[in-house]
Amino acid sequence: MTDTTALEAAAFRRLLRHLNQERTDVQNIDLMILAGFCRNCLADWYREAAEEAGVAMDKEQAREHVYGMPFAEWKARHQRDATPEQLAAFQAAQQRHG
C-alpha cells in the first residue's frame, strides 16, 4: 500500500521546486490574481501545519522553507514591483472572491 502522506509530500516538494527554480518569473501577485494563493500562502499553510504538529515555527522560518532561501534574498533576486495593471487585477480578484 502506498503512503499517501509521502506522495503528498513529494508533490509539495515538486510544486516548491517548480515555483522557486523553474518559474521564478511568475510573480506572487499573478498567482494571487489567477489562483487565489501564492508562495507566501504556502508558507503560512506550512507554518500552520507545523504548529498543529507541535513544531514551533515563525513566519520567516516557514518562508525560508518554501522559498528555499531567506525571503528577503528571494525577493531581491526575483520579485518585481507590481504594475498598476496587476494591482487593479488583484483588487478585482479580491472583490470577486472576498
Automatic annotation (TrEMBL):
Pfam family, one: DUF1244
Region ranges (Disordered): 79-98
Gene3D superfamilies, per database record: SMc04008-like
Endpoints of the signal sequence: none
Domain SMc04008-like: from-to ranges: 26-91
InterPro entries on file: SMc04008-like_domain, SMc04008-like_sf
Protein's UniProt name: DUF1244 domain-containing protein
Species, as recorded: Pseudoxanthomonas putridarboris
